Amino acid sequence: xxxxxDRLFGKSxxxxxHVSAASGFHLRPAAVFxxxxxxxxxxxxxxxxxxxxxxxxxxxxxxxxxxxGDHFDLVCKGKDAESAIEALTRTFxxxxxxxxxxxxxxxKADADYQASALEGEIISQGIAVAPLWRYDAQTQQEHxxxxxxxxxxxxxxxxxxxxxERTIALAQNTLLKTLLERANSLEEMEQAVKEACQTLHxxxxxxxxxxxxxxxxxxxxxxxxxTVIAYPDTPFILxxxxxxxxxxxxxxxxxxxxxxxxxSLASHTAILLRAEGIASLILPQxxxxxxxxxxxxxxxxxxxxxxxxxxxxxxQKKLKTLHHAAEDLQKRRFDPAYxxxxxxxxxxxxxxxxxxxxxxxxxxxEGIGLLRTEFLFKHTxxxxxxxxxxxxAIFAHFEEVTVRTLDVGGDxxxxxxxxxxxxxxxLGIRGVRLFQSHxxxxxxxxxxxxxxxxxxxxxxxFPMVATPDEFLSAKAFAKEVAKKYRCNxxxxxxxxxxxVPSVLFMMDAFNEIVDFYSIGSNDLNxxxxxxxxxxxxxSLNPRxxxxxxxxxxxxxxxxxxxxxCGELAADEVAIARLVKxxxxxxxxxxxxxxNTKERIRxx
Length: 603
Hints:
9-stranded mixed sheet; Glucose Oxidase, domain 1; 4 domains; 18% strand; 5-stranded mixed sheet; PEP-util_enz_mobile_dom; EC 2.7.3.9; 24 strands; Histidine-containing Protein, Chain: A; alpha/beta; pyruvate
């Protein structure tokens, strides 16, 4: 009763908040805002255009359809209303400052086609010539899991994303939690999604319905309701009202382009289409059925539905020019990369499993600069034999391989690794500290690595090392494992990740005991600035001056080889500066190898 009294008659505080982000108050910032609001006992509402909603309810916030230039009243009532209004104002302003436009506005290329063309909004630039194929999905029911089991599976997947857009998965996870507040079965979830989409219909946030439908699809799939899309084997341009974000990643190679009728440039689907480099447009008008090729010129922002033979020839010529440029890059992917001054910069690959190792080989990588072993077995604990066979298959692809021992903790979790709940998990048990907390797990992994190498030269590195004693302890542990299982490790070099700033102050001591260094720029940057890299409101400059200063200092004082395996290694702007700093070993994702080599050749 007292809590109800406070909410009804307690002090009320109001502030006007202005939406300044170009993409509006969409899913990701709204998810963060609603989560922050739930931390307060006060009754909190967002009011605009005569409509008032619970600001702790993500679905309700999205229903306001707040676009750039809009404003709303944030009303807090209750005993902690003052604290709530101050904290939420700061959160909102930080979110608006952090949010960049979700879409780009490319300069449209000139186009001179004889036939009439339909103008659309460019999602992702490119050209495609192929027949249209209308999206058609069929659902097959093979009920195998309960709703609760499916939800748990989906939540784990979204909590540990390994795709291109981590923030999308994290925002969807928040959205799922909101839906689960009123859905305890598949039927209730279907109704909740239906109601949410109806609420968003006609608002600026209507494109976010794809995120709701995507969550529903994920749960249905986890329960055994399989959606089958019989894509053509021959080249086609996909036409659909919209696509689910998860469907973008499963588009076949035969899909040459995408036309969407009811999406938006700020949708998560659009973000993923750009990440995949698929020529895509938004065209509101429906298209006539046709088995003949159309021209999707997403460089010019048009679709030519009934092209003349000359139009087809002109489009194919454009397409050929683009292909030649890409082919030239691919042809040179196996060539070593030298700067203009003749300095060789080795380009290695970051891999997670056998498939990505194979992709790295095909991409022209000169070796594996980082094998992330924590991603090999994400859902179930592997036994020794399973690990050994997986490592053997990966090692077989390259002569130079660097394996990082298990690195969980922080934002990386495995269901079979029991870690304590910590106030600051990024500063707790993770990386090399697992040698102390989970020795049996590390022992089994090291044994599998040593046995899989079978005398082949191999580098093993320890993550999150902060002191020389930590490195020596981990190396001693590894030697004891080798002795216990009679493994010859004369072929093994032991190194460490440079992620903790304390390492920079003890380079002389580390030079005496390590065989090599690998700079993890992502973690090093977050620890230099005391900002968690997954923080929802605080952002890190990936090219901060402090980070470059730390890298340069490490290279200058290291007496052993230094590589860099963070996202910075593939940053087109940063590559030149890294090379000039003295970093001559870069490890990047397989798809970035060819482009990274080309950038080096221009340094």
